[in-house]
Amino acid sequence: MRLLHTSDWHLGRSFHRVNLLAAQAAFIDHLVEAVREHEVDAVLVAGDVYDRAVPPLSAVELYDRALHRLADLGVPTVMISGNHDSARRLGVGAGLIGRAGIHLRTDPEGCADPVVLADVHGEVAVYGLPYLEPALVKDRFGAGRVSHEAVLGAAMDLVRADLAARAPGTRSVVLAHAFVTGGQASDSERDIAVGGVEAVPAAVFDGVDYAALGHLHGCQTINERVRYSGSPLAYSFSEADHRKTMWLIDLGPAGEITAERLDTPVPRPLARLRGRLDTLLEEPGYAAYEDSWIEATLTDPVRPEDPMARLAARFPHTLSLAFDPEDREESGAASYAQRLKGRSDQEIAEDFVAHVRGGGVADEAERAVLQGAFEDVRADESRQETRR
């Protein structure tokens, strides 16, 4: 069986205020054509279909057109909600839409209710695990603690139990939206940490033939059977070195995996340039980037006059400008954003406690209070989103 694995469309998202709707529409065109050209048997969309819970109408219209076109091909599509999506909104009409071959899995209760496909070698059970907010589903799944590993592990236990009750030789695929240990993040993903603990081990997916993951925007292979497709478009300059693709997966008669990357259209290349303004404007080697979207970091000791306009004269698609003077002293030189980069909410809060005490770090009890506070806030945000 041939599967096309994609995720993280983020319909409705812009890139540094540049509207990406046309680029997203071009990706949908490419996706439909790839399904035809490669004779795909099923499409897997592993979450973050939209960029936010209440997407703009233009994004909803594009999504609607995509579903109609996939349904017209007669190729089943299995789609889950991600942490950016409103699960209830995305899942509206799922029963009716399913009759057209578009199978939406947005309710945690349906984790062990697979879409059953078949080829000449037998059945393939495709399980859709929507993004699982630990504080909201822990009790429902009987998970021992509030963590991504605990709730995803409990959901996978249900999957394995259902699979064990099926005919011997039934092959299996799982869609999930999570941060799996070993994956490489970018600046584009929304933090899903709970108390600073967000990663789950790849072993949580043991027992299934293929895990189609979403959330991380870089295409990557955790192991042969656990892969991220990545986003089809770049959504931050941290993705400048990404090769944007989808996975074409051939699932053999005994569950063996063959994988091929299919490139997606690039609306405009990204470039991160660094140096003195005069160098960027005069150096011939930078001519290759004149049609790229540019993030420029100027290292001039003194901030140049009117730098953005001068850069735009050579690089008309400059979108981001930062300053990092080359002779600046190291102490206190890092920007606030740089100091926070890569740190969880929990770590930032603990650093604040140490700062206001003049060096006295939070003790174990205080760390537990902070962790509980973050879990409560995150759960409250998820409940409010569910009620919208």
UniProtKB/TrEMBL annotation:
InterPro entries: Calcineurin-like_PHP (IPR004843), DNA_Repair-Maintenance_Comp (IPR050535), Metallo-depent_PP-like (IPR029052), Mre11_N (IPR041796), SbcD (IPR004593), SbcD_C (IPR026843). It holds the Pfam family SbcD_C. Signal peptide: none annotated. GO terms for biological process: DNA recombination; DNA replication. The keyword Hydrolase applies. Keywords: DNA recombination, DNA replication, Endonuclease, Exonuclease, Hydrolase, Nuclease. Residues 267-355 form the Nuclease SbcCD subunit D C-terminal domain. GO terms for molecular function: 3'-5' exonuclease activity; endonuclease activity. Residues 1-218 form the Calcineurin-like phosphoesterase domain. Heterodimer of SbcC and SbcD. SbcCD cleaves DNA hairpin structures. These structures can inhibit DNA replication and are intermediates in certain DNA recombination reactions. The complex acts as a 3'->5' double strand exonuclease that can open hairpins. It also has a 5' single-strand endonuclease activity. Belongs to the SbcD family. NCBIfam families: sbcd. This is Nuclease SbcCD subunit D.
